Every structure is written in structure tokens, then in C-alpha cells.
Amino acid sequence: MAELKDIVDLDSNEVVLKDNRVTGSLLPKKNAELGRNVTINGNVSIEGALYAETLEVKMGPAVLKGAVFANNEVHLNMDCKGLIHFEKSVASPKSVAAMLTSGAAIFGGDINAPSIKLKNCFVCGSVYGTEVFLENSVVLGGVFATKTLSINTSTLGTFNAPEVSAGGINYLLYPTAFSVEPMSILPGTEFWNLCLADLGSLYKGETEKDNTGKIRMDLTHDTQRTILVDKEGTKTLVNSYSVATRVLVSDLIDLDKFENHFLIISASLGSQALKQYSLTLANGEKGPELTVSKIAEFFFGILSGKTAIKEISGQVDFDELKQLKI
User: Fold this and answer.
1) What span, in angstroms and rounded, lies between the C-alpha atoms of 152 and 121?
2) 10 Å Cβ neighbour count for 35?
3) CA nearest 197: which of 316, 312, 315?
4) How far apart are CA 109 and CA 22, in angstroms?
5) What is the CA radius of gyration of the chain?
6) How far are the Cα atoms of 169, 183, 230, 242 from residue 235, in angstroms, in the given order?
7) pTM score > 0.85 for this model?
8) What average pLDDT score do residues 130-159 get?
9) Stretch 184-193: mean pLDDT
10) What is the rounded CA–CA span in Å between residue 163 and residue 269?
11) Furthest-apart CA pair in the chain: how many Å?
12) Residues 291-315, buried b or exposed e (16+ Cβ, 10 A)?
């Protein structure tokens, strides 16, 4: 990586950065700078918050350590190479687009925009939009769309949208997700629930604990239609997709030693954590550190099939459950 040239102050209506470190924030100081466009051409670090009319990332690597807001669009070019790391939240009143084919992007906080399109992206927080498209991406929180949500070969914490379409092999981290209309599913689409998968052991490279694993979701039989009524009496029909009725096996798991939530929370804290944490191996030795980049690599390993998770039915023999309770 080339040596970065420090920039303390920028007084320009157009900012193009390459091999630069901006030591402060990129915020407008006068009216003329409200329409300022910012372009990143690679090897850039911005240590404060950023406001722009349009933020365009043509080439990585780039690290943006503060919150990012673009009045028009946050746009990462499709052929953008290298890692683009937004350590805090990213928002726009119009669009956030990161349809990456060569590089990758990490969003350390939430993403909020009417139109959101992500490919090869890792989101530590949640995604809020009107129309959301996800392909080969991981969102540790929820994906909440007020109109449409398209999911293709992705991992989500949960989701809620009026219209949901899906294709490929997908994973949910939490037991339940929702849509208003029945989901539109392409042939060959699979959904697996990881709420009882031993992600902590897999992250450490150890053997998964007994009675843990991924649960195949049957989007026909694991669906329940529910009518919700608000304070004004308005009724909304919601389809819920859940394995909650099939996780009695959780009573057979020592949840005190389950490290899934700690793994996810460590990623969501990111740069806000006061120190670097790690998981402890079964033999008591220090395990791998919980860095955002390593956690992202781990979840993409699950998505690609490189990290295999054993399958469980989510069902349990009542005699076995009775024996445990006695």
C-alpha cells in the first residue's frame, strides 16, 4: 500500500481522493459545499464523518471511520476491487448501491435508504429501506423493507417486508421472519435456520456440540398466517416463517456455553469495543480473536459451503426430554 498523504482540511466543491488520509471530517462549511461530490479512487482513509451530494467509490481499499450520509447516492462501482469498510452507519434519502463483483464491503452499522442493493457485502447492523435487494451478502441484524425484498444466496438475522422473493441457499440467524404476502420462491430455493447451530465452536474450528445444527425450513409447513390489529383497529395479515415450534431440542443444549450471540454482538460493536475479545477453546486456551473481518470471513464461509454445519431436525423424543427434566 502506498504511503498515505494526510489532508487536514478540504475546501473544495469537488473532492477526489487517492492515497490520502483525511484526518478530520468531510462536512460542508458553507452553502456551496452542500452539493459537493466525493470520489474515492483507492487507498483512502477518512477518520471522521462524511457528508456528500454523491459518494462514489471507484476503487479500494478504503476505510471510512465515521458515519456517512449522501444526499443523492452512496455508490460503489461494480468492478471496485479491495475492501471498502464503513465502520459506522450509512444513509441516503435516495440510494445505497454496492453491487460488487470483484471486491467486498463491510458496513459496521445500519444502512438506511429507500433503495438498497447489496452484493458481496457484510452488514453488522440492520438494513432499512423501501426496496431492498441482497445477493451473496450477510446481514447480522434484520432486513426491513416497506415494499419489496429480494433475497438471493444470503444470510440474514431476520426479515420483514410486504413482498419477499427468494432464490438460492439462504440462512436465518433467528427463529422467525415475516412477510405480508406469501413468499415468492424460485425452484431449488432453500432456507436454513441457524438459531441452534453451534457457531461458536465452528468459529474456533472445534467439533459442534451435541443436539446442535442447522434446521431446514419448510416454507409451506413452517408458515403461519396471523392477523395483527393496531390501536386504531387496522388489521394486517402477516405470514410468519418460524422454526419456533420445532426447537424443543434447545432444552437439551447447555445454552450457557452457546456463544452465538456473543459472536454476533462482537461484530456489531466493531470499533466501539474498548478492547479486542476472543473466544476460549475447549482446553482453556485463547481462541481466535473476534474481529469484524474474521467474523465476516466466517459467515461467508458458511454461505459458500466452505464451513459445513451438521443438520438437525429440530425435533426431540419426548422420552428423552422427560428424562432430562426429571
Assistant:
1) 13
2) 14
3) 312
4) 21
5) 22
6) 33, 20, 7, 21
7) yes
8) 97
9) 93
10) 31
11) 74
12) bbeebbebbbebbeeebebeebebe
